[in-house]
Each structure stands twice: as C-alpha cells, then as structure tokens.
Amino acid sequence: MDSDELKREAASWVDAGRLDDLPPGSMRRIDDASQRVLIANVAGTPLAVADTCTHEDASLSMGALDGETVRCPLHGSRFCLRDGRAMDEPAEIDLACFAVRVSHGRLQVCIPDSDTPR
Ligand code: FES
Fold first, then answer.
1. Beta partners for residue 103, in sequence order
2. Which residue has the least CA distance to atom 3 on ligand 1?
3. Which of 91, 106, 114, 117 could pair with 77 in a Cys bridge, judged by C-beta atoms 3.0 to 4.6 Å apart?
4. pTM
C-alpha cells in the first residue's frame, strides 16, 4: 500500500450539499470540524481546495471565481482549482486539494482525518 492509499484510508467523506445547489460558475465554503474547504463547480466539474489563502488568513470563498481559478479577496493572488497551484504573488504556497465525488445527487469531499500527516 503506497502513502496515497494510506492517506485515503485515514480520511472521511464529508457531505457538501446538493450538486444542484452548486451550479457551474459558483463556489461556496464548507466548514468541517478540521478543515475549511472551498468547493467550486468548474464547467460541470466539482473541485475542492483548502479555503484559507496560503498568504494570510483570508477566505477564498469571499474572492472571485474565474474559470478554473479563484482570486483571493485580500491581495489578489490567484490559485488553480485543479491542482491548488499559487499562480501569483504574494501567495507562494500551493493550496491543498481534496477529492470530490457525487453520491445520490449530493457532493462529498474527502477530508483527511485531523491527526493524519499531510
Ligand atoms: S491573503 Fe490571499 S493573497 Fe494575501
């Protein structure tokens, strides 16, 4: 078993609401006990990343969604929602990405258990 498989085993699928409530071009924040997650619908594909900007403590859900990027509301860094990559300064650290699935019309995000090393 490789390390990715181990991480998946030590993770939980968290309900993120109805897929129909997240139309293409929209995003929202999910507050899990251990993690704030931004989930966005990018042209029909739900993608999830950490919601807190890696530069300072800003919620990316308050920023702007533009295609497959989100712009931080505080200083304007953009992040790619597909891979979490920080695309502009001042942010230099990439966002964590989370797997998303749809089950019976509901979005679910795979969030590592809080004591799992990342
Ligand atoms: S807090 Fe996000 S770019 Fe500064």
1. 106
2. 75
3. 91
4. 0.87
